[in-house]
């Protein structure tokens, strides 16, 4: 693991309900745009990784053949919500080992194919058979967090309000209108204490990034951002007690990421974190070392995680506002980091952004905190 | 980086490809299978496309594919539906291949390498050995008795 790896290009379609588009129709346009914007030709590409959970057989090959991108390895990756980021991790690993120079990573998902409702989980899972759904998992985290800390439902609402404020600035966001605390609290209950506006929407989308070695980046003559850490952890089973307000898989992943990059949470200018439900953001403030246990609420109450604060959390609007087409999210977070660290984020640009973290988990498995967690750290180049 | 900029990145647009799944299209010369030709390199592909699979050009034109070609290979499928379904790959005059339902008669059985012609009736289309009663000129306004019996 010695070669420096860079993200040299990013593109995506706005997340939303693209009912007329297939996985191919979602992913081919950003694939073309990502290659063009970095001046990458098909012949430059050594391998392709494609993150998705519901695309079916050979989703990656179905996309790549449209532009005649074949012969090289194409690997389809499923790690639930971490699929896209896991795909980036695999590409990073291959380049950093020196095996290849240029990799394309596609994250894509089409959730409107299910016609609504909660995310379909594996029917083989013990708790799924008992009726667990993702909103219930996060709602139980929230209920315990409200029990253990001074947090109130208003704090949960504040996370959604911030997300929607950021999303309103992002042309890629599924929700581009702001909401108030009262509107969030008055929204339809989904799983107590979570209301509809505390839950990420379902939708469709695709995002593409191109990763390159130092030499390939020099040859392409693009700036990009450096991958300072790429960490992938899997869940460890707990048959008995588990503290659901302190997810250890994300804590351990963050620890390893900070160590690999040689930085700490105080160095971060932005974080794109897995706010599938608003409770998650408060918990992750603490998990990532931005706040002491039980004190995450101070950050959201004091506006320290929005533009002008200590660290901008989810400048894109996050999963709550930008949307969460499962397999696409991890790549889309990295696209956001790319635009922020290359000064091309438009209205939502964070001034002097140098360090970015992206974080996704993948859940829905009995006995595990989450099934997978991927954390990346990036430095402006 | 030193300062925020107002530079905006390109917002990619999804393609509504699920709305254009059918291969049969209307053209001035009549119903034909739809192809796409790349304006830059001339590569012709089956179906509606937005990008050239050869040169990755995105300036492409919808074209009518030829009405005849060569049957490369075929099978008679005995599973998945009622009865027997002949199915094969047809290579058009030009370098485009399509999967196609096939029709045959005792007088004109299917064989690899024979010339086949497009038949169309409403939304249905198929290929059959050329110059037999099982094939119909696609621009024809009425189907022959033979082809009606085949259906």
From TrEMBL, chain A:
Metal-binding listed as a keyword: no
Keyword Nucleus: no
CDD domains attached to this UniProt entry: SCP-x_thiolase
BP-aspect Gene Ontology terms: lipid transport
Enzyme class, first EC level, given as a word: transferase
A GO MF label: lipid binding
Domain Thiolase N-terminal intervals: 5-215
One Pfam assignment: Thiolase_C_1
Name of the molecule in the record: propanoyl-CoA C-acyltransferase
Species name: Agromyces seonyuensis
Automatic annotation (TrEMBL), chain B:
Superkingdom of the source species: Bacteria
InterPro entries documented for this protein: ChsH2_C, NA-bd_OB-fold
Pfam families in alphabetical order: OB_ChsH2_C (PF01796)
Species lineage: Bacteria, Bacillati, Actinomycetota, Actinomycetes, Micrococcales
Record protein name field: ChsH2 C-terminal OB-fold domain-containing protein
ChsH2 C-terminal OB-fold domain mapped to chain residues: 63-118
